[in-house]
Amino acid sequence: MSMDRPSEAEVPFRRALELTPRDSDAMYNLAVCYQNGVGVAARDDAKAVEWLNKAAEALRAEARESAEAAERRATEEQMKALLAEAADRAQPLDYYY
């Protein structure tokens, strides 16, 4: 089997990575294939570690993005609450006349 041609089990995971390059599940599954020597030309611990590290980095990036999005939502909600509170405290114009 050619080293640059993926085996049968690798194909769906590599296809998933073509469609979504940061697919941590596909990276993890590919690592498991190499770790167990299932669906690949031969067991390859070095490739397993490589793909596990890629999966971990993709998950870290995903977690970072989720945290940033949550922070933005929290900030938006806090701003809405502050504006609503300020509007409740504001006196109508006829109060001054």
| Biggest sheet statistics | none
Strand segment tally: 0
> Over all CA atoms, what is the radius of gyration?
25 Å
- Provide the residue-averaged pLDDT: 84
Helicity range: over 70%
Structural class: mainly alpha
Point out poorly predicted stretches: none
Number of helices: 3
> Per the principal axes of the C-alpha atoms, what is the gross shape?
rod-shaped
Helix-strand sequence: HHH
Strand content: under 5%
End-to-end C-alpha gap:
89 Å
Describe the 3D structure.
This protein is mostly helical and 97 residues long. 70% of the residues lie in helices and 0% in strands. The chain has 3 helices and no strands. The chain has helices at 10-19, 24-36, 45-89. The radius of gyration is 25 Å and the shape is rod-shaped. The termini are far apart. 11% of the residues are buried. The model has no long low-confidence stretch (mean pLDDT 84).
Q: In brief, what are we looking at here?
A:
The protein is mainly α.
SSE blueprint:
Layout: H1 10-19, H2 24-36, H3 45-89
Helix pairs in contact: 1-2, 2-3
Distinctive features:
3 helices; mainly alpha; 97 residues; single chain; 70% helix; rod-shaped
